[in-house]
Specification:
Blueprint lengths: L7 H11 L20 H4 L5 E6 L5 H13 L4 E6 L14 H17 L17 E3 L8 H15 L10
Parallel strand pairs: 1-2
Antiparallel strand pairs: 2-3
Helix pairs in contact: 3-5
Organism: Nannochloropsis gaditana
InterPro entries: AB_hydrolase_3, AB_hydrolase_fold
GO biological process, one term: triglyceride catabolic process
Length: about 160
């Protein structure tokens, strides 16, 4: 199913409108996407929380970026809302999975940013709508990237080697 909030035609039009103003190759420019940053720069990232929708056209890149962060030693938390589109942040309060991911992001920011109060709520009772894609003990970033990539490509997000909340 295509992403209802970011169909391919709109994605292409926005990218074409933004990218032509660049003087460097946009397909590998870290100013376009941090995914293309060198490992030395990525290793300086703070602990990172990433929420992504299962229908997001950037899902594969998002999973790859999470794995790259982990590979260079950056603590990264990736949450996947199986039935969510790109831009699901606008669904806060309207969709249970979107709300749960955003509330978890708030708690993450409060905890990692030095705040003393988290956001109320959580992902409890989501019945598999949110998949935790954290590393399992003993796995390396590359192994997780392979495991997640195989699951996303071959099993429609159902067999990701993770725990469900």
């Amino acid at each position: 199913m295509a992403d209802p909030l970011l169909p391919l035609g709109l994605f292409t039009a926005v990218a074409d409108a933004y990218l032509p103003s660049l003087t460097t190759d946009p397909s590998r420019d870290p100013l376009i996407s941090p995914y293309f940053a060198h490992d030395k720069l990525l290793s300086r990232f703070p602990p990172t929380f990433i929420g992504v929708g299962g229908f997001d056209p950037l899902l594969d890149d998002t999973v790859d970026f999470d794995c790259r962060l982990r590979h260079v030693g950056v603590p990264s938390t990736l949450r996947l809302g199986r039935d969510l589109p790109h831009g699901f942040l606008g669904l806060y309060g309207l969709d249970r999975a979107a709300t749960a991911i955003m509330e978890e992001a708030g708690r993450f920011l409060a905890r990692e940013g030095g705040g003393d109060e988290g956001v109320k709520g959580g992902a409890g009772g989501m019945d598999g709508m949110i998949v935790e894609t954290g590393l399992m003990q003993g796995e390396t970033g590359e192994e997780v990237a392979c495991d997640v990539g195989a699951a996303v490509g071959g099993e429609g997000l159902l067999g990701i080697a993770t725990e469900e909340e």
